[in-house]
Each structure stands twice: as structure tokens, then as C-alpha cells.
Amino acid sequence: MRQRSEQQNVHQSAILLDHLARRMRVRSEAALAPFRLRVRHLIALTLLRERGDSPQQQLAVALERDGTNVVGLLNELEAEKLVERIRSPQDRRRHVVRLTAAGVRRLSEAEAVLVDVEREVFAALDADQRESLYHLLRQAMAGQEVPGMGD
After folding, report:
1. Which stretches within 33-148 are classed as H helix?
2. pLDDT (tens digit per residue) in 15-72
3. CB-based contacts of 37: which residues, under 8 Å, 6+ apart?
4. Integer Cα distance of 73 and 48 in angstroms
5. Which of 10, 33, 75, 99 could make an SS bond with 103 (beta carbons 3.0 to 4.6 A apart)?
6. What is the pTM of this model?
7. Residue 81: left if φ>0, alpha if ψ -120 to 50, beta else—which one?
């Protein structure tokens, strides 16, 4: 009986994170709709801003998405003129993805709107706690960095 009660008291961070992620995604998708962006677009644009130009294959690895899905994602971003694909100077058969000036602007505008979404979802936390949470999440992600993408 004691074993059962100890198991019941174990913190289930994964469940809480999943629930918060779902809540954040629903609100973020609504906030991003006027920008014709989805969360997956924002992640790709953010990676390109933080890491610079990226071979398409490395971007697919960093996004943890199948190459075919990344092509569709990039097609959407390219149609909005937020990214461009250029031939790799080292290997003309491959593409390098580059964030455009329009992509930088749209990303900044979307991020400004998402500040309010975060405040809403994390309303029970004060500013210092939200900052601590951000740093803890970055620390947790540190072990997940993709080789060859630079940092």
C-alpha cells in the first residue's frame, strides 16, 4: 500500500507540460492567424534567425520533421516571401534556406503578439517566475541541440 501512495505523489511534469503546451498552442494559433503564420512556421523562422542560413536537410533534422513535410512548410513560408531557398555553393544539388528581411519583420511582429499569449497562459506566475521558467526550459532543451546547426 505504501508503494502506491508514493507513486501517486510523484510529480508528473510531462503531463503538466503537455497540458500547458496544448493551451499555449490553441491561443498561439489564434493570435498568429492574422499574420498567416502557424506555430510550426514560427519555430522554423526562429531557428533560421538564431542559427543563420541552413541547409534544408539540417533544418528538417532541427525541426524533427520528415523532409517532405519540411518542403511543404518551406513552400508556405516562401510563398509569403519570409524565406528563400538558394542553391548551396558547395553542392548545387542542395538548397540552403535563408530568412528574408520580410521574414525577420513578420517574426518580430508575431513574437510581440505572443507576449500577451504567454502572460495569459502563465498568469499565475509573476514576471520573475516566467523568466525562471524560460531559463529552465532552455536548460532542458540544451541536451537536445542538433549537431552542425551552430549556436
Report:
1. 39-51, 56-63, 67-79, 101-121, 127-142
2. 999 999 999 999 999 999 999 999 999 999 999 999 999 988 899 998 888 888 999 9
3. 45, 106, 110
4. 13
5. 99
6. 0.77
7. left
Per-residue burial over 104-131, b if 16 or more Cβ lie within 10 Å, else e, is eebbeebeeebeebbeebbeeeeeeeee
Query: If you search the block for the grid coordinates 491561443, which residue do you land on?
Result: 27
In the chain, the amino acid numbered 129 is Q
Grid coordinates 532552455 are at which residue? Answer: 138
73 CB-near residues (< 8 Å, 6+ apart) = 40, 41, 44, 63, 65
In this structure, the chain runs to a length of: 151
CA distance 102 to 80: 9
